[in-house]
Write a structure and sequence with these properties.
Number of strands: 9
Number of domains: 1
Structural class: alpha+beta
Oligomer: single chain
Strand order of the largest sheet: 3-4-9-8-5-6-7
CATH class: Alpha Beta
Helix content: 10-25%
Shape: globular
CATH superfamily: enterococcus faecalis protein
CATH architecture: Roll
CATH topology: Nuclear Transport Factor 2, Chain: A
């Protein structure tokens, strides 16, 4: 566990398996986020959601897609790669990170201006 803004965060995201749908949407940088995405933001993965919001709105390769799969892949030496694909496994964009404290790989879906966990689709 790590302290973030005075509270403990769960970088292993132990509660991730409890999200299957959402009860509330959160507005964030022009996107709607589900309960599950809000949970990962509150537990140390806000950088992933912030970067995804910018890339989904600004990158020409991605911004006109109706369905985007976002994969956080952890690499050796605390590095990471985030890929953005269409629904047919075609790579649209990828971003490398030289350092991360992330402990878990994550898959997000972006559909109809809603960013959600794959389990919430």
């Amino acid at each position: 566990m790590k302290f973030f803004r005075g509270k403990m965060t769960d970088l292993e995201l132990k509660g991730l398996n409890y999200f299957h749908g959402t009860e509330q949407y959160y507005n964030y940088m022009g996107l709607k986020l589900t309960d599950g995405v809000h949970y990962i933001m509150e537990n140390g993965y806000s950088w992933l959601v912030s970067d995804a919001a910018v890339i989904l709105k600004m990158r020409p390769e991605v911004r006109n897609e109706n369905f985007v799969v976002i994969n956080l892949k952890l690499l050796p030496e605390s590095k990471a790669k985030v890929t953005y694909e269409d629904g047919d496994y075609n790579l649209l964009y990828e971003q490398y990170y030289e350092w991360t404290d992330a402990k878990r790989e994550i898959k997000l879906f972006f559909v109809g201006n809603v960013l959600m966990l794959s389990s919430e689709y």
